[in-house]
């Protein structure tokens, strides 16, 4: 029993590390100013014309996604997935903390912006790999994709693309309506959509060895 609890604690610690890394990835993407990842585009845009911070808007979006999962799956919804709620609260708070931590970084050239964008993509990819390796709970965004797949029998890759595109479209429309310009969705968003998954896959290889050595021993 104690061994099982130790394994579970290690997995949650790995998840927390992944959330910290992802939060800084989001912060660096925002600082780069070339667009955030699809999942962060909507909270970022909301933060620009509401009293919400990026982290608070992230929490609000995750809560909405959790409610949508419940409405979609109804009796098929597994209560254990409500763990997504405290994870969302932690991730939103960490995101605000990361944005504050790097607030003094200044960028001027386009190349420097791409450098920060690349750092953001790398960190988000590594954080996603940590989350997947921990294997204890999914974030609400991925949970929503899985819920749609379960409810409608759609394949995960296509559903994930559709989900990301939907978030980007909503963020773009809100940006144009309330800010009268496009914010949060730029070339960096496209790069993140393509590269985050690739980074995560590359990191998954050493993380699998780490899992066998430290999480399952």
Automatic annotation (TrEMBL):
Keywords from the named record: Membrane, Transmembrane, Transmembrane helix
Pfam families assigned: DUF6198 (PF19700)
Record lineage: Bacteria, Bacillati, Bacillota, Clostridia, Eubacteriales
InterPro entries: YczE/YyaS-like
Species in which this protein is naturally found: Allofournierella massiliensis
Domain of life: Bacteria
Record bears the keyword Transmembrane helix: yes
Official protein name in the record: DUF6198 family protein
Transmembrane portions of the chain: 12-30, 50-73, 111-140, 161-179
N-terminal signal peptide: none
């Amino acid at each position: 029993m104690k061994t099982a609890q130790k394994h579970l604690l290690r997995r949650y610690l790995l998840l927390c590390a992944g959330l910290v890394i992802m939060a800084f990835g989001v912060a660096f993407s925002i600082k780069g100013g070339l667009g955030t990842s699809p999942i962060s585009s909507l909270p970022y845009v909301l933060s620009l014309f509401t009293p919400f911070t990026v982290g608070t808007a992230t929490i609000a979006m995750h809560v909405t996604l959790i409610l949508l999962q419940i409405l979609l799956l109804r009796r098929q919804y597994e209560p254990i997935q409500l763990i997504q709620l405290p994870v969302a609260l932690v991730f939103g708070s960490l995101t605000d903390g990361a944005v504050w931590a790097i607030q003094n970084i200044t960028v001027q050239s386009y190349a420097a912006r791409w450098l920060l964008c690349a750092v953001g993509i790398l960190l988000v990819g590594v954080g996603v790999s940590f989350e997947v390796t921990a294997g204890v709970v999914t974030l609400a965004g991925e949970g929503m994709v899985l819920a749609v797949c379960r409810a409608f029998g759609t394949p995960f890759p296509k559903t994930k693309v559709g989900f990301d595109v939907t978030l980007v479209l909503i963020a773009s429309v809100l940006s144009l309506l309330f800010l009268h310009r496009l914010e949060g969705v730029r070339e960096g968003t496209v790069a993140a959509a393509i590269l985050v998954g690739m980074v995560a896959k590359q990191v998954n290889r050493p993380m699998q060895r780490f899992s066998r050595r430290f999480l399952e021993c």
